[in-house]
Structure formats: C-alpha cells, structure tokens
C-alpha cells in the first residue's frame, strides 16, 4: 500500500521520571533501554513518515536518535511539562499533513498498530486519530495539520488530551486488542512487572 499523507513521527522522550529513581527511559528490559524499543519499531515503519523527530533532554538518547537517522531536538524546558516536547517537535518539523506523537515509555507498540492508525488517518485526514486499547484511549495519537496552532498553544503537562476532549466530534477511535501495547512504564512497580512478564 502506498501512503499518500505526509506525517511527522514525533517521539517524546524528555519526561522527568518523577516517580522513578533516575531516568526510566535508560532502564533496561532484556538488555535494551526502554526508549530503544519505540526507536526500533518506528524504524521498521520509517517509509510511512516524512521524518522522525526525537525530543529528549538526555544526550545519550539524542545521540542514539542520530544513529537511527532521526532528527534530534534537545528539550531544555522539560520541567514545564509534556507540552514543551509537543511544541518543540512541531516547530522543528517539515510542512506535513499530520503529526503522530509517540511516548518513549510505551515500548510494546507494534508495527501493525502504527500502520492501522496511519491508514485510518489517510481515510480521515481532517480528524484526530486515537488508539483505544481494550477500552482505554492511549497513544500514539495523530493530529492533522489544522490542529497545529492549538497544539502550539498547549501549556503544562496536559499534552493533547484537552484538544481531544474539546474536539470529540472530530476524533476517530481505532480499537486495538492487545495484552501489552498499552503498557507504559511510569513507576518502579510498572518496571518490575514488565521485567517479570518479559522473563528478565
């Protein structure tokens, strides 16, 4: 299938890991840093993106992004919340039809899910596309270009949720049935649970 919509993949990897002792993204599962999982999965889908942008505050993550051939953007203001990464990603993106936002602490997103979300967006290029994992909305979310200004006006750590809430009539839900794709690692307990699940 040929994908005709131009989309920027924006990986947000600048969280402060307030509920962890240290940067959770550099913690390892099966010998691999948590952020590397989404880097590798997106790399399998890179032909479907106009570009891949990584927004991070750790030099080791930015260096790895460059090794993948991604655009690496340093977030010096990550303490202001997730909105700073969203805005940095957009401001450093090309002129595209949509922005697909990934969180680097969600390691098990599949290549198939990414493609399904893109297919849905191509059929509905003026709508926000949100995955719903077993009844719970999650990420990655695709925002069309016509929401660019609203995204650039975001403040704090709310992310794009407020835009989705205020534009529910312009939002399309894609149901994903999976046991692990919705897992994000926010706490030590989450990390231990995933390590046990993965046999670490």
Give a description of the structure.
The longest helix has 13 residues. The protein has one domain: Spore Coat Polysaccharide Biosynthesis Protein SpsA, Chain A (Alpha-Beta Complex), CATH 3.90.550.10. With 200 residues, the chain is α/β, with parallel strands linked by helices. It has 7 helices and 10 strands. A hairpin with a 2-residue loop joins strand 2 and strand 3.
Give a quick rundown of the structure.
The chain is α/β, with parallel strands linked by helices and about 200 residues long.
Keywords, separated by commas or semicolons:
200 residues, alpha/beta, 5-stranded mixed sheet, 3-stranded mixed sheet, 10 strands
Rg, Å, rounded: 16 Å
Q: Unreliable stretches, pLDDT < 50, 5 or more residues?
A: none
Q: Which fold name fills CATH's third level, the topology? A: Spore Coat Polysaccharide Biosynthesis Protein SpsA, Chain A
Compute the separation of the termini in Å. 37 Å
Order of helices and strands: EEEHEHEHEHEEEHHEH
Which structural class do the helices and strands define? alpha/beta
- Give a quick account of the main beta sheet: strands, pairing sense, barrel closure: 5 strands, mixed
Element layout with pairings:
Blueprint: E1 7-13, E2 28-29, E3 32-33, H1 34-44, E4 51-56, H2 59-67, E5 71-74, H3 82-91, E6 98-103, H4 111-123, E7 128-133, E8 136-137, E9 141-144, H5 148-152, H6 161-166, E10 171-176, H7 188-197
Parallel strand pairs: 1-4, 1-6, 4-5, 7-10
Antiparallel strand pairs: 2-3, 6-9, 7-8
């Amino acid at each position: 299938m040929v994908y005709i919509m131009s989309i920027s993949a924006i990986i947000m990897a600048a969280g402060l890991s307030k509920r962890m002792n240290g940067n959770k993204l550099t913690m390892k599962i099966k010998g691999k840093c948590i952020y590397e999982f989404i880097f590798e999965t997106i790399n399998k889908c890179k032909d479907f993106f106009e570009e891949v942008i990584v927004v991070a505050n750790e030099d080791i993550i930015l260096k790895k992004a460059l090794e993948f051939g991604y655009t690496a953007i340093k977030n010096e203001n990550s303490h202001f919340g997730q909105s700073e990464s969203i805005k940095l990603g957009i401001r450093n993106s090309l002129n595209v039809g949509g922005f697909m936002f990934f969180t680097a602490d969600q390691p098990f997103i599949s290549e198939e899910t990414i493609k399904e979300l893109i297919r849905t967006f191509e059929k509905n290029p003026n709508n926000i596309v949100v995955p719903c994992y077993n009844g719970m909305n999650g990420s990655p979310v695709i925002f069309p270009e016509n929401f660019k200004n609203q995204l650039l006006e975001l403040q704090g750590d709310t992310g794009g949720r407020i835009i989705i809430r205020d534009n529910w009539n312009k939002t399309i839900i894609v149901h994903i049935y999976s046991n692990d794709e919705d897992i994000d690692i926010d706490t030590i307990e989450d990390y231990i649970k995933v390590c046990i699940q993965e046999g670490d």
